């Protein structure tokens, strides 16, 4: 089979395509023919030295994939040849409290990921793909989709009448917009692009604020809610956006802390945090049970993931470059086999 590996994280040129022996499923494993993988900011962050956890070179990158089961090992009872599946982002977090060993499973950083043609994986580390989605679409659910799902469903699920703030037009934010709209919540979005503002409105955002032109966008968002603030902030900007997110959040609202897209880090004012009246929750994608729930929600609501561009397997480097350009809206996908 063919597989990409990052020989080092010095540059994208270190992403090399190799011929490798086909993996064989061991006891309890299935062999997946990988049809599509989707990229996430973390795949770039590793390359640019911005990933907040250790990354080991030499591994197959990319955490998110969908494909078809083509062989099963001894003792496999949950899947059969021909099943359409998606990989779980955390292959050994099934539900409940996050295991302390979670880091050692991190695809692309600590273990081989999915940018390859065939992968042998535990039957516990995959779930069925929703019937209504193509492989390309299903490949976008394991990280970006599930992260948005976790941000909106825990501990107080977002519902009709709530307002959600999403930041920018990347994979997590667009899923959060779609999932919030699916339950009848209002969505306010931010973006740095006038063209994307129109696309965000077309996807259901009731208002869009340009964060590049309006440095006090948190206040503007609060104004748009009549001064009450938003019930949930899908916080993907991190250190450079948290102060504005606190301004935008309602008393009793929640900042779901997800990302670290911003490069500046001015620090957090403790008193702003204390007096905001909002709570702060750290999100680490979500567990396998959450991915199953998301799959059912996608199927029931007929949600179609927004795929910005699909690259051929041979053009994997161009997919990384496209993601890094920030010109995408939604997800960037690589088709591994047809
Ligand atoms: N903790 C977790 O569980 C978890 C899970 C998934 C992702 N993440 C993190 O969440 C973040 C988003 O991931 P992603 O894969 O969705 O990213 P992505 O698709 O690469 O998002 C890129 C978009 O984000 C927007 N953006 C960039 N800088 C921004 C800023 N300073 N403020 C507001 N928006 C900004 C831009 O939108 P415009 O062009 O519209 O301005 C850009 O196009 C990343 O930091 C990622 O590592 C964390």
Briefly, what is this?
By secondary structure, this protein is an alpha/beta fold.
Number of strands: 15
CATH third-level topology of the largest domain: Quinone Oxidoreductase, Chain A, domain 1
Question: Quick one: biggest sheet?
Answer: 7 strands, mixed
Secondary structure class reads: alpha/beta
Encode the helix/strand succession as letters.
Answer: EEEHEEEEHHEHEHEHEHEHEHEHE
- Ranges where pLDDT stays below 50 over 5 or more residues in a row are none
| Separation, N- and C-terminal Cα atoms | 14 Å
User: In CATH, what is the homologous superfamily of the largest domain?
Assistant: Medium-chain alcohol dehydrogenases, catalytic domain
**Please, how many helices?**
10
**How large is the share of residues in beta strands?**
25-35%
Shape: globular
Bound molecules: NADP nicotinamide-adenine-dinucleotide phosphate
Please identify, by name, the CATH architecture of the largest domain.
Answer: Alpha-Beta Complex
Topology summary:
Blueprint: E1 2-6, E2 15-19, E3 29-38, H1 41-47, E4 64-72, E5 84-87, E6 118-122, E7 126-128, H2 135-138, H3 141-153, E8 163-167, H4 171-182, E9 186-191, H5 194-202, E10 207-210, H6 217-224, E11 230-235, H7 242-248, E12 249-257, H8 270-276, E13 279-282, H9 288-301, E14 307-312, H10 316-325, E15 331-335
Parallel strand pairs: 8-9, 8-11, 9-10, 11-12, 12-13, 14-15
Antiparallel strand pairs: 1-2, 3-4, 3-6, 3-15, 4-5, 5-7
Helix pairs in contact: 3-4, 3-9, 6-7
The protein binds NADP nicotinamide-adenine-dinucleotide phosphate.
